[in-house]
Write a structure and sequence with these properties.
about 475 residues; Jelly Rolls; TIM Barrel; eight-stranded parallel beta barrel; seven-stranded antiparallel beta sheet; 10 helices; about 20% helix; binds beta-L-fucopyranose
């Protein structure tokens, strides 16, 4: 399952260094510290949720397509047993904290009875044309205490005004306004960059500033997603893999608008930019099945729980957020297989951290400044602040512990600063590296074969400001 291992044990190595000499500890210039970006409270809350579920649902579910043409009859949309509460319960069982629904995909069919077009659930036979999937979706999220968000495709292959300029902008903004005023608080608005041709063969130049102003005015607490943010960015691929180096900061000029297409965009989005002036963390969207929509032919191709754990480690464990897509079937429910996988994923994830942080009770020493008095754990609002951009934190226990998972966190409310780090154990009279990496950010997870040690340490080899470390934890999950 492409399980990543950073076992450098056999390389007796240049990395097996001893304590950093005091001369290596350089102070950060105050001017740089002041300039580094920090998250807004909304971006911070968004990232701390770690897990969100994507729900792709439209006429495609019934026509067996991934992209509708826009000429589908609304009567094609025919759920036999729609149960949004079942979606929300399945999400919750897996540990997901919010859901994002495709209120409108590229085919233009609206899952709510919009006043802007007849191309909606109102023209279907479902609930005699009086149904509202968006309403049932937000009600289910609220009942399960989960956040609700919307995907509203700007590309609309049905609407004749698409490609006409302001007339389509007005139409699109009216749809957005309905969604953001009639359904209560929204946690995220998801803007797809797809910008194909409409029914007239024309393309629309989207009015992003107006779109963003509308979201800010109507839902100031919602984060806005797109390739180009402004609040959270696409991670640059649909494989579920954030960069091994992943900064929450970007230089906005590199991906100036959603759908900006250059060969290097994927890499730029995966990695972010340590010197970027915008805080714009990456969201990793990936489907539990090969497609985004449900297809009977893919019922046997649902990702295993182990594979979902791998995705968790390659997204959340790399300073990103996982947005996992689970598509309803034609019934309007999640398939039993998908529901079972979500629950199993939740159980396996908890098992990884079962037994708690094995460093609990350790004596702690720091390279400089005050060492933390107790185990570092991001759930507490405290953190260790290094007094230099190179620093280490050592943990000594009375007895050996065994562990196979490392979890590091920076206190990102204060920015993201660590550029290079390693984690070491004391063995046979020297420090040996068991995991190394570049960025940490909100969370860095590394899995490896079980290790045993009594003395362990985190070395920050370089940071752009003295590190603020919120968590150093090791677990024996298995
Ligand atoms: C893409 C779309 O074209 C896909 O259909 C899907 O919605 C994915 C999340 O974004 O750009």
């Amino acid at each position: 399952m492409d399980r990543r291992r950073f076992l450098l044990a056999s390389s007796a190595s240049a990395l097996a260094a001893s304590a950093l000499p005091a001369s290596a500890l350089a102070a950060a210039p105050a001017a740089v510290a002041a300039a580094r970006p920090r998250p807004t409270p909304q971006q911070l809350a968004w990232q701390r949720e770690e897990l969100a579920l994507f729900v792709h649902y439209t006429v495609n579910t019934y026509t067996d397509r991934e992209w509708g043409e826009g000429d589908e009859s609304p009567r094609a949309f025919a759920p036999t047993d729609l149960d949004a509460r079942q979606w929300a319960r399945a999400a919750k069982a897996g540990g997901f904290r919010s859901l994002i629904l495709t209120a409108k995909h590229h085919d233009g069919f609206c899952l709510w009875p919009t006043a802007t077009t007849a191309h909606s659930v109102r023209s279907s036979a479902w609930r005699d044309g009086r149904g509202d999937v968006v309403r049932e979706f937000v009600d289910a999220c609220r009942a399960e205490n989960l956040g609700a968000g919307f995907y509203l495709s700007p590309w609309d292959r049905h609407e004749p005004r698409y490609g006409s300029g302001q007339a389509y902008d007005d139409f699109y903004l009216a749809q957005l306004t309905e969604l953001l005023t009639n359904y209560g608080p929204v946690v995220e608005v998801w803007f797809d960059g797809a910008n194909g041709e409409g029914p007239n063969g024309r393309r629309q130049a989207y009015d992003w500033p107006r779109i963003h102003r509308t979201v800010r005015a109507l839902q100031p607490d919602a984060v806005i997603f797109s390739d180009a943010g402004p609040d959270v960015r696409w991670i640059g691929n649909e494989r579920g893999v954030a960069g091994s180096t992943c900064w929450a900061t970007v230089d906005p000029a590199r991906v100036p608008y959603p759908g900006f297409d250059r060969p290097w965009v994927g890499e730029a989005l995966q990695q972010g930019d340590p010197h970027g002036n915008a805080w714009r963390p990456g969201e990793t969207d990936v489907s539990i099945r090969p497609g985004w929509f449900w297809h009977a032919a893919e019922d046997a191709k649902v990702r295993s729980a182990d594979n979902l754990i791998d995705l968790y480690c390659s997204s959340v464990g790399r300073n990103s957020k996982l947005l996992l897509n689970v598509p309803p079937t034609r019934a309007g429910r999640f398939h039993d297989t998908d529901v079972a996988r979500l629950a199993e994923f939740g159980r396996k994830r908890e098992a990884l951290f079962a037994g708690g942080n094995r460093l609990a009770g350790a004596r702690v020493r720091a390279s400089g400044g005050d060492a933390p008095q107790r185990v570092l754990d991001a759930d507490a609002e405290s953190f260790w602040r290094a007094d230099a951009v190179e620093a280490w934190l050592e943990f000594e226990l009375d007895a050996e512990i065994e562990f196979d998972l490392l979890c590091l966190q920076e206190a990102i409310a204060h920015g993201q600063h660590v550029a290079n780090h390693r984690f070491e154990i004391w063995r046979d009279g020297q420090w040996r590296t068991v995991a190394w990496g570049t960025t940490i950010g909100h969370k860095r997870l590394e899995r490896f074969e079980p290790e045993r040690a009594r003395r362990l340490r985190l070395v920050v080899e370089h940071g752009y400001e003295p590190a603020r470390i919120a968590t150093v934890a090791v677990y024996r999950g298995g």
